[in-house]
Amino acid sequence: EVQLVESGGGLVQAGGSLRLSCAVSGFTFDDYAIGWFRQAPGKEREGVSSISARAGTYYADSVKGRFTISSDNAKNTVYLQMNRLKPEDTAVYYCAALWAPIPTIDHANYWGQGTQVTVSS
Predict the structure, then answer these.
(1) Which residue in 44, 34, 8, 54 sits closest to 96, CA to CA?
(2) Which of 75, 92, 97, 107 is the most exposed place for a label (fewest CB within 10 A)?
(3) Is 25 exposed, middle or buried (0-12, 13-18, 19+ CB in 10 A)?
(4) CA nearest to 17, candidates 59, 60, 68, 53
């Protein structure tokens, strides 16, 4: 059974940092890329970053230089280190197993349940 479980969300002040984790089971990182998405209230879900064994890493322009994605194959976990957080980063963050390396909704096969990130000004 494929599962993705996010953790690490919370409340942080602007300029602060959080690290999100996505623990996966039922597949390996050779089978799927892993993407991070976020959805703010009233907005569409958007791809933020992804990591792929074949294609490397991808970042949306809005987070480039502030967020870093990485993976620990031994722990079957993907991390999203988020630095210099801004109020506009506030959203529910989801990880997903992707059949292609760019994080778009159409590329997602499996989703986690999401974790809330709130950045106060």
Answers:
(1) 34
(2) 75
(3) exposed
(4) 68
